[in-house]
Amino acid sequence: MVLTALVAMVRKDLLLFFADRRALVMAFAAPIAIASFFGSIFPGPDASSEPARVPVYLVDQDGSAIAASVVAGVRADRNLAVSVASVEDARAAVRRGRSSVAVVVPEGFGAAASLALVAGGETPQIELLYDPSRGAELALVRGLLIEHVMRAVSRPGFDVPYRVRAEALVAGGRARYNGYAHAFAGMGVQFLLFAAIDLGVGVLLERQRGLWKRLRSAPVSRLTLLGGKAASGTVITLLPLLVSFGFAMLVFGVRIEGSVAGFAAVAVACALMASTFGLFLAAVGRTPGTTRGVAILAVLLMVMLGGAWVPTFVFPAWLQSLTVVVPARWAVDGLDAMTWRGLGFGAALTPAAVLLGFAALFGTLAVARFRWEESPSTTTPGG
Amino acid sequence: MLEARGLCKAFGARVAVDGVSLAVERGRVLALLGPNGAGKTTTVSMLAGLVRAEGGQVLVDGRPVGGDTDPARRRIGLVPQDLALYDELSALDNLRFFGALYGLRGPVLERTIASALELVGLGDRARDRVAAYSGGMKRRLNLAAGLLHDPDVLLLDEPTVGVDPQSRNAIFDNLEQLKRRGKALLYTTHYMEEAERLADRIVIVDHGRVIADDTLAGLHRAHPGAGTLETVFLALTGRRLRD
Description:
Oligomer: heterodimer
Low-confidence stretches of chain A: 378-382
Mean pLDDT of chain B: 91
Order of helices and strands of chain A: HHEHEHEHEHHHHHHHHH
Strand content of chain A: 5-15%
Shape of chain B: globular
Strand order of the largest sheet of chain B: 6-7-8-3-9-10
Number of helices of chain B: 8
Low-confidence stretches of chain B: none
Structural class of chain B: alpha/beta
């Protein structure tokens, strides 16, 4: 009888899930659309693709052969989009955000630089005017400029005395970074948590509509009722994640380069965590409206800190260490490990175990806080 | 058949039910009447096992009804005041779900559903979404959902609220049919004419206590000047507004 009731609860919740066409489109189409966008703008380094060029304004006030050589080197750099301009135009371009950095080569630079290199004379100064919101691009331009100036000043015959060979390192032999893999992991986890909100709000609506009374009046244990909800929630939250990844595999060539079993373990553990999070919301929430509002805020914070939007390595160190208490981070890291990082099943164990730990925590809190009795004033007006 | 002995329940400082006792026999209808906030719904909730009684007992055929999974609870059916239905699903899927909660499945479940829908006259609309039903049809389906497991006792909490006279009449016919089948019915309502038509016995509660428990004729005998049940009710509970 317990199994009959459990199966019926899962079947009913799936029917309700598929009955709402508009919500269905949101659950499946939204994560795909957003992840596709993020994946396209953060594709990762790829030698075959054109890099995003940093817009730079270049001002040559010197006019010497050395300055002309610097200008030619900078203009030929595939990492930069260079415009030669007057200093006034360059300043205006940086102020208005049209350029990240303006490089000003001052009058007398060529002669002074040669002298400084050969005879130890006073070093001339190149002025860098930069947009303070784009500090990373300033560092890039500064580094590239050193290379081009050294080449120009030391001619003929001088070149930078080393070459760089960059190799992307992932665990799997054939594994290759695919920006879509991370984007779909992040958005998959985000929308999985949104589905969990629907689960929690759904329980509150069932309570509000008196359905919970009918469920409670049946000879079914409380454990079965909550277990049935957790089971259906796990299946329903898993669906958007799997459909999203299926789309990413078909359209963007995302692959599970690591362990398929590990991917499944992380995904199921994540869905179980989300499902129990939904039950926790149902236990502590009062009304569907306010619960939805607060839960959306909580989920957005969770996925933001979990690295679903931008990788956690861009966070300050203190924040990076703090995000280990955010379940979304373990979910995203676990899915990344099994997809583009190409790690084996062992690498899935820790994220899956942590996610199951969060599931146990949310589940315990939900059971402890769940309101099994209702005062008549919150349900029916008559009696 | 169903008996409540000295039921008590308080919500915080507010005493909702204070020593309510009543009994309803097989093939009989008991109408539970009372003003708003009198304790009717709390009493029904305790009888249905939704709310734990702080004092007293609920018995079916003399045997106390236990916790959530006590098989005795299977002998009680609840028709809540709310339209406790999933609007997004068809009537058939609603009933399949509610029936499965009582362990029904397969051909037995399908037969039971067909019989319940037949009783309430919704057999030809079984595959329609509940959202497309009228208020009266929803009320009838609400009743059908409480009957699936063939309970011996049916608790009906204001089952005719907000329905048109035709649907109300159809529900009365259903209840009279159930009564003829030997079911014990406990019925709460604010409509005195419903109690006059259906009830074999009338219990009036106020401030959580039973203030009258008699047949319709007995109540009239006790209040000789009162022409109708409503007059008796007002004489017992007063005319002061309760909301």
